[in-house]
């Protein structure tokens, strides 16, 4: 009787023990390979002067825009201010800082500086402010105007999905989210 009961308990306990094989889901994102830097390298950006400097009058706006363009392609990183990662206000902060112009670090605070201007009067080096996403009631994104061509305002900024890129204000998303333009210089 005890042997039968013991065997019954063992059979029940082993049969209730399931072994399931989990299938690992395939990753749909791509993986970047990060290599170690030499001791001589750093995360800071050194300004590279444009090669055509002698052929044009270089303004402070040109220097700021050229500095910002060096970050093009850098991945997005919240709070980032280096080549290893950049956010929108960090890009603007560092670009103006390269010309000894200190701005607040947050886009909504940047929007309190300079002079508000009409969109039809913007020029290279002016800032565009946006209200995007869930927080439509407050400014949460900023871009730097790099060019105006074909009736479209081109601006450099850092997006969470594509990192530092140049976009056009005529793109429906940015036009809808646009709030104001300001001149700092």
UniProtKB/TrEMBL annotation:
<keyword id="KW-0378">Hydrolase</keyword>
<protein>
    <submittedName>
        <fullName>Cell wall-associated hydrolase, NlpC family</fullName>
    </submittedName>
</protein>
<comment type="similarity">
    <text>Belongs to the peptidase C40 family.</text>
</comment>
<dbReference type="Pfam" id="PF00877">
    <property type="entry name" value="NLPC_P60"/>
</dbReference>
<dbReference type="InterPro" id="IPR000064">
    <property type="entry name" value="NLP_P60_dom"/>
</dbReference>
<dbReference type="GO" id="GO:0006508">
    <property type="term" value="P:proteolysis"/>
</dbReference>
<dbReference type="InterPro" id="IPR038765">
    <property type="entry name" value="Papain-like_cys_pep_sf"/>
</dbReference>
<feature type="domain" description="NlpC/P60">
    <location>
        <begin position="58"/>
        <end position="185"/>
    </location>
</feature>
<dbReference type="InterPro" id="IPR052062">
    <property type="entry name" value="Murein_DD/LD_carboxypeptidase"/>
</dbReference>
<keyword id="KW-0645">Protease</keyword>
<keyword id="KW-0788">Thiol protease</keyword>
<keyword id="KW-0732">Signal</keyword>
<dbReference type="GO" id="GO:0008234">
    <property type="term" value="F:cysteine-type peptidase activity"/>
</dbReference>
């Amino acid at each position: 009787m005890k042997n039968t009961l013991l065997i019954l308990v063992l059979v029940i306990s082993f049969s209730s023990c399931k072994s399931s094989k989990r299938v690992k889901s395939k990753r749909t994102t791509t993986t970047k390979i990060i290599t170690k830097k030499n001791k001589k390298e750093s995360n800071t950006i050194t300004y590279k002067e444009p090669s055509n400097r002698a052929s044009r009058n270089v303004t402070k706006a040109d220097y700021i825009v050229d500095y910002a363009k060096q970050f093009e392609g850098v991945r997005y990183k919240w709070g980032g201010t280096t080549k290893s990662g950049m956010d929108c206000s960090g890009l603007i902060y560092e670009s103006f800082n390269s010309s000894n112009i200190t701005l607040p670090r947050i886009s909504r605070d940047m929007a309190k500086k300079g002079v508000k201007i009409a969109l039809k009067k913007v020029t290279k080096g002016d800032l565009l402010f946006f209200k995007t996403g869930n927080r439509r009631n407050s400014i949460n994104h900023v871009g730097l105007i790099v060019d105006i061509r074909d009736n479209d305002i081109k601006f450099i900024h850092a997006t969470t999905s594509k990192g530092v890129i140049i976009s056009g204000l005529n793109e429906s998303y940015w036009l809808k989210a646009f709030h104001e333009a300001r001149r700092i210089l």
